[in-house]
């Protein structure tokens, strides 16, 4: 086998031009087929996970999408507020696993200050999973005006443990110094914890006890206290529907199933992805054809090499391995390069897209199901090389000398 | 290891038209034989038979105790890579490999240790130490021939088969080539069989097999 490899590598060196073209074709096809699915999955992972840690979003009546983009993604103005009383009812009703209050209204350098409570950090993707939000540094807030910063918010506004800042009114940053001065609150916040990146919207958030929000906005008596939304999780699936019905029956709030909103968005995406998958298949097909051409472009040369090797006394398994090995090396190089390229491109693409959306996407994750699409080129290449490999074993060495 | 070489009733059939019948050979280990005769009388074919590259229509080739025609394909492969050094009529060097790699290839097929080192030594012994990195296309005919000889002798075979070693050479170079082969065979103690049209070569070797028109029966 070492002889086959030695000869294969030198054969490929002698045909460096064809090798380069084939490797490039396979690499580009692989990258084309995988980059977009990789980026899509990055986004889906971050956005969907963020919505999967609870069952229902309960917010003031209005557009379901707007409620989600505001209270979950902090990208829009809320549909309104609901009373603290409703939040407490939800929290205390039987069958509730968790009710997490969300209070919006202020920002720091454009990063939303999100009022909530300790239950926020207990949210999980599945009941048995570890908590979804993990602290990278410090601890959870334990008093008013303490801040647990999302990974991106901390990094970009240069917040460390112990850093202090003053919050500003409104969900977005003010344009001018003057505006900023007048909009600023007087109480300083102190950072006590920094979250690990999630790839979701909480990366941008500055979390503080909801009591801080009430205090800052002068909601001193229980009757005046409000929350923007409640992230609700039930013990059992049936409980989710019961609660949704109960909330929607009242006038004060609406219950939004985040999954339904996402499913709508995904239907649109899926159509685009199907078209893209078809295109990828075509490109991979062309790559397979290039491999096949590469195999056959070298027929005469390879027959001479094989004949000489056999005449010198090389075994039949050696020449068989030589012919398959040349193709295997070519396709593997191409697919390997393509996978690296796909991860690189989707990493860059994900970063750019994450900047637009305002949260840091997790690095691209190459799963087997995705990689298999490109790895399939390897057996296809071997299949193309099989007839000449068998020929090499069966033909008399004198035939091509 | 050189061995006695013997043939019995050898004949080869190329299609319905051509039948080649050979007189029996009986060579002691280490002798040098010239095979001469007009073109088309089957000289190259006989070398193929002796190398275990071709199975005859009838008869047998014996190398010592090994009957090459009865042997399995694998046994013939082993025989070729261990015992045979073959200098082909047009050399059959690989154009994509350097002179050094061409010789190294032969040694690797033979399963030799330190193939690169030994290839370099074989080329140096044939005064090609300065051309080891050149490809065959960059070498003169005489140099290519020496690379082919280096590849044929580097793994120290017991049987050296050479097809028309002086066909492409002027008289001076032909003499040098002949000397090269005789020296190499003597050093290895190998049996040397040279197919040639060249009286200079034929006369220099102690034994001769003349293949005649009468033995090549054309159009039975
Ligand atoms: N593969 C083949 N198929 C058919 N006929 C062949 C084949 N190889 C050789 N022959 C025929 O067998 C005869 C002997 O060929 P061979 O090459 O052994 O002759 P040669 O003595 O070496 O000739 P030369 O001196 O020209 O090299 C020729 O008539 C040739 O045409
Ligand atoms: Mg001949």
Please write out the topology.
The complex is a heterodimer of chains A (401) and B (220).
Chain A (H helix, E strand, L loop, with lengths): L1 H13 L1 H37 L3 E4 L4 H8 L10 E2 H9 L3 E13 L2 E6 L18 E4 L7 E4 L1 H6 L7 E6 L7 H7 E12 L10 E4 H7 L9 E2 L1 E6 L2 H13 L4 E3 L1 H40 L1 H14 L3 H42 L10 H8 L1 H18 L7
Parallel strand pairs in A: 4-9, 6-8
Antiparallel strand pairs in A: 1-11, 1-12, 2-10, 3-4, 3-7, 3-11, 5-8, 6-9, 7-8
Helix pairs in contact in A: 1-11, 2-9, 2-11, 2-12, 9-13, 10-11, 11-13
Chain B lengths: L4 E10 L3 E4 L4 E2 L4 E5 L6 H9 L6 E6 L2 E2 L5 H11 E4 L11 H11 L5 H11 L15 H13 L5 E5 L7 H18 L2 E5 L3 H6 L2 E4 L5 E3 L2
Parallel strand pairs in B: 4-9, 4-10, 7-8, 8-9
Antiparallel strand pairs in B: 1-2, 1-3, 1-5, 2-11, 5-6
Helix pairs in contact in B: 3-4, 3-5, 4-5, 5-6
The structure holds adenosine-5'-triphosphate and magnesium ion (MG).
The site of adenosine-5'-triphosphate has 10 residues of chain B, from helix 1.
Structure write-up:
With 401 residues, chain A is an alpha+beta fold. Chain A contains 13 helices and twelve strands. Chain A is elongated, with a radius of gyration of 30 Å. The radius of gyration of chain B is 17 Å and the shape is globular. Chain B has helices at residues 43-51, 73-83, 99-109, 115-125, 141-153, 171-188, 199-204; strands at 5-14, 18-21, 26-27, 32-36, 58-63, 66-67, 84-87, 159-163, 191-195, 207-210, 216-218. In chain B, helix 5 (141-153) runs parallel beside helix 6 (171-188). In chain B, strands 1, 2, 3, 5, 6 and 11 form a six-stranded antiparallel β-sheet that branches. A five-stranded parallel β-sheet of chain B has the order 7-8-9-4-10, with helices on both faces. Chain B has a single domain (3-217), classed as 3-Layer(aba) Sandwich (Rossmann fold), CATH 3.40.50. Chain B is an alpha/beta fold. Classes of the chains: A alpha+beta (401), B alpha/beta (220). The A-B interface holds A 2-3, 6-7, 10-11, 13-15, 301, 304-305, 308-316, 396-398, 401 and B 48, 51, 53-54, 73-74, 77-82, 84, 86, 88, 92, 94-97, 101, 105-106, 108-110. Magnesium ion binds next to helix 1 of chain B.
